[in-house]
Design a protein that fits this description.
alpha/beta; four-stranded antiparallel sheet; 9 helices; binds adenosine-5'-diphosphate; binds magnesium ion
């Protein structure tokens, strides 16, 4: 995993700083005064019940949803004030969805090079070298000519991860990447993510896999009804939660 390693850095550098973020859908405020930041190289897991706003938060971070208020400072720039560069910001944030979102008409390699060529203007050769590097990393380099429909869910998700990594993002956002998978596929995808986390990549992961979150996260954020109810290191959140709602959620989940 040395391919992604960043130099060990004792200084913390904030990569994303979210301040007073809010999001309304119509009259409903589904994100309320969200404040949190992520340091370079940090792995942050977001947990919470269905409907608590986890996906909306991730979608606001990469501007798939337009926040209603607040700031998202990404690498020093408030990206909500700088909407003309939406695509520029988005290429620096790799997103992996529950439902894979592969292009079904393209093969595995095609999926991993199309964005690089169209958005980053890389040559086909350069894009292919990059794609192969990450397909190998996720164990899918034997499948470059397969179409998505020929792959299992776990294989599709690993291709989706390779596709996102091929864009050389500065942060990876995962929205329940294993929730749509058959149980026997979950481990392969989590192993890939664990390796990425260990390599020093900055990651924000929405997950229901509590053992995984405990294992890989530097910090865990618990969301409840549109607010961050509690955040802290995994030992605190899982072993010694301070908030009653965190305790209630964990009792239901674990
Ligand atoms: P989670 O990912 O934690 O399950 P979501 O972020 O998907 O939660 O949803 C938070 C709330 O926002 C839910 O009540 C959901 O119904 C609502 N919501 C999400 N997307 C939309 C949308 N596009 N339009 C209206 N309401 C939405
Ligand atoms: Mg969700």
């Amino acid at each position: 995993m040395d391919t992604l390693a960043q130099p060990a850095d004792t200084q913390t550098e904030t990569i994303i700083d979210i301040q007073h973020l809010s999001k309304f859908f119509g009259e409903r405020e589904v994100l309320k005064d969200i404040n949190f930041s992520v340091n370079k190289g940090e792995v942050v897991s977001i947990i919470g019940s269905s409907g608590s706003g986890k996906s909306t938060l991730l979608r606001c971070i990469n501007l798939l949803e337009k926040p209603s208020g607040g700031k998202i400072i990404f690498e020093g720039t408030n990206i909500l004030e700088d909407m003309k560069d939406v695509n520029q910001h988005r290429t620096k944030m790799g997103m992996v969805f529950q439902s894979f979102n592969l292009f079904n008409n393209l093969d595995v390699l095609g999926n991993c090079i199309v964005g690089q060529m169209k958005v980053l203007k890389r040559s086909k050769e350069e894009a292919t070298v990059k794609a192969l590097k990450y397909l190998k990393l996720v164990g899918m380099d034997q499948f470059i000519h397969a179409k998505p429909k020929q792959l299992s869910g776990g294989q599709k998700q690993r291709v989706a991860i390779a596709r996102a990594l091929s864009m050389d993002p500065d942060v990876m956002l995962f929205d329940e990447p294993t929730s749509a998978l058959d149980p026997e596929m979950v481990g392969d995808v989590l192993d890939v993510m664990k390796n990425l986390a260990d390599s020093g990549l900055t990651m924000i992961i929405v997950t229901h896999e509590m053992d995984f979150a405990r294992d890989v996260s530097d910090r865990v954020v618990f969301m409840d009804q549109g607010v961050i109810a509690e955040e802290g290191p995994p030992e605190q959140i899982f072993n010694n939660p301070k908030q009653e709602r965190t305790k209630a959620f964990l009792r239901r989940t674990l």
